[in-house]
Amino acid sequence: MTLSSLKNTFTLGLSGLVLTAALSSTGLATAALAQDTDAAAIHKRVLALDGHADVLLPSTPARYWLNGNASRVDLPHLTDGGIDAIVLSVAVGPGPRDAAGVAAARADADAKLAKIKAFIAANPDRVALALSADDVERLHGEGKVAVLIGFQNARIIGKDVSQLDAFYRDGARVFGLNHAGHNDFSDSSRPWGEPVREHGGLSELGRQSVARLNDLGALIDVSQLSTDALLQTLELTRAPVAATHSNVRALVDNTRNLSDAELDAIKANGGVVQVTPFNGYLKVPGAEAHQQIGAVRKRHGLGGDFKTGYEDYNSLPEAKQQPFLDELSALQPRASVSDYVDHIDYIVKRIGWEHVGIGTDFDHGAGIDGFDSAAEAANVTAELLRRGYDERQIAAIWSGNFLRVLRAAEAARR
Questions:
Q1: Mind listing the pLDDT tens digit for each residue in 150-189?
Q2: Which CATH class is domain 47-284+333-411?
């Protein structure tokens, strides 16, 4: 649902309206329309920022593309959904850490960085690079989409901490040290066929990186880190952090989701947790889906003991990994916008609305019913409004909390 069509197709708010039995069908329609108008107006007024999205390359598997050929965060989708700012991440996944593996990761990262810059250059009247929180607000005032550049997975730089400076000079302002699989800087929340712990959290390179990112004035992203690495980062950093695309482990027991202890620690740090519309982090497969996933795993020669189904897939020969992932993705249950906002609600109740935001992870597997691309962002605003959030809180969730921590990171610069 796009922002422009929200008025005609709005349905989310109706179920939550407090209506008396005396309301006629005309009264019901009037009440729904009033709720619709409020949601649309609020969404248009707030600065809506997506704190994490990926970049598609020709080599990106087809399952990540919208309808097989489109980005969920291209300019038409951003415009239709009223997204005013976005962090596009130069991200790579797990892989070898030898010289050839690092070179391949760097080539992938360089291609994504070049695509981000080409996107900006191709749309100078509508899109611009933001290098600070002030830039984001200035560009929003000019009616342009502000693009911040993110960095994810220090496998890109091997063991060379100085390369963080190079990416900062190239415009990156949000830095996550990990993805799936441990690297030479930190342990991951999703070991990639490895022991659960390699460094016991951060390595010495990781500790140096936290200090260096603080000195640069960059925002540290703690999504994807192991619990030990996350807590150690919070002990070391002198600025608030962001978990740019993480959900709640108390609701869905997935190692990519954050425990209550991690949420509490991020609050104590002054940071923000940005919730992602990722089906696997929002909804647990039911008995039938679990059985089907088990059958797929068995057919591919994997064990029957699993939580998500993705465990140990990397033990398959490389040529068989993508077909397996394609099959598995098709079996994942679809979450709804209500499921999504349940995680926002939990974080709000646990650590406060000042510490929650939105980071979609679009173009890397995210997308739920009602929020399957940037074009449907207004549905989230409508659901927040339906649940009683006011405009000030909605504005904070969409961007204010993220911009606050980004400014705090900038203030730590030396």
A1: 999 999 999 999 999 999 999 999 999 999 999 999 999 9
A2: alpha beta
What is the distance between the alpha carbons of residues 307 and 310, in angstroms, rounded to a whole number? 8
Token pair in block for residue 307: 């939580």
Domains of the chain by residue range: 47-284+333-411
Biggest CA-to-CA distance, the chain = 72
**Under 8 Å CB-to-CB from 29, ≥6 apart: which residues?**
none
What pTM does this model have?
0.89
Per residue in 34-87, pLDDT (tens digit) is 444 599 999 999 999 999 999 999 999 999 999 989 999 999 999 999 999 999
pLDDT band at 20 (very low <50, low <70, confident <90, very high): very low
Contact 35, 387 (CB under 8 A): no
